[in-house]
Amino acid sequence: MDMIIPVKGAVKFPITIDPTVWIFDDRKVDLDEFFSEQYQEVNQEDEYTDVTSKQWSREITEGAVFPPTLKSEKKYERTKLLTNSYAMPLESFIKNAEPAPDASNLVIETEGSEVRYSLADLPTLLVQFSKEGKPLKEDGPVYLLHKDGSNLNAPLKYVSAFRVE
Prior knowledge:
Layout: E1 5-9, E2 15-17, E3 29-30, H1 31-34, H2 44-62, H3 69-83, E4 86-89, H4 91-96, E5 105-110, E6 113-118, E7 125-131, E8 134-135, E9 143-146, E10 159-164
C-alpha cells in the first residue's frame, strides 16, 4: 500500500502528504484526549510562547543543567507516542495547496468510491494516521474522522487522495 496521499484537482499547488512523518508534528491531536470532555484546542503561537517561557525560567532558576526529570519526561512522551492514536486537522493541508477561487468541494477518494464534502466543512475534519501507536497499513494510510465524533466507530477508510473541485 502506498503511504503517500496526493492533494490534487483545482489547486494552485498540487502537493503530496506523507502521514508517516506526522508523529513528529506538533499539530497532531491525541484522539483519546480529543474525544474526551477535557480537550481544549490551543493556539500554536501561545503554546510555543508558554513552552519557551517555561524553559527560559527553568534555565534561570536551575542553570543550564539538565535535571534528572527530563529523561523521565522524554520516556513518558515516547511511551505515549507508541501506545496512543493520533490524527491531524485536514484544513491546513488543503489550504496550503491553495484551492482555486471557484472551487467549492473536496472529494475524498477511497478504494472504489468517492465521498464529497464542501470546502466549508474543512475545519470539522480530522485525518487519523495512527491507531494504538501503529501506522494504518492494512486499511489506511489514513482514516477520515469528523471532529464531532459522529463517525468515530466507522471512519472513512482506505483514503487514497484528496481532490479539490
